[in-house]
Amino acid sequence: MINNVPSIIYDKNKNPLRVIKSTKVFFKKQGRVGYVFHVEREERITSISEFDLIENNGSFIITKDIFESSGTLQGI
Predict the structure, then answer these.
(1) Can you point out the beta strands (E) in 15-72?
(2) Is the separation of the CB atoms in 18 and 40 below 8 Å?
(3) Domain residue limits at 13
(4) Domain for residue 46, yes or no?
């Protein structure tokens, strides 16, 4: 489990994401307690588990794409 909740984490492209909230939960699959981080980028908010992060020189980097484009709406 992460000892100190970061205020900024980074996506795969090293873009900063602001952590707006963190919640400590029990992860059944991992069998232990950890954090879920609620992150914001360009007015979009999503959640990421601490188990989807790697630490690199004191910074946390997300190991998967979390803000995928939803494409365009058709038929409008």
Answers:
(1) 16-27, 32-41, 44-49, 53-56, 59-62
(2) yes
(3) 8-62
(4) yes
Q: What are 62-69's contacts with CB under 8 Å, separation 24+?
A: 62/9, 62/10, 62/11, 62/12, 62/17, 63/12, 64/12, 65/11, 65/12, 66/11, 66/39, 67/11, 67/41
Residue 75 pLDDT exceeds 60: no
Q: Mind listing the pLDDT tens digit for each residue in 10-51?
A: 998 888 999 999 999 999 998 999 999 999 877 788 899 999
Total tally of structural domains belonging to the chain: 1
1 assigned to some structural domain: no
Residue at token pair 């690199």: 56
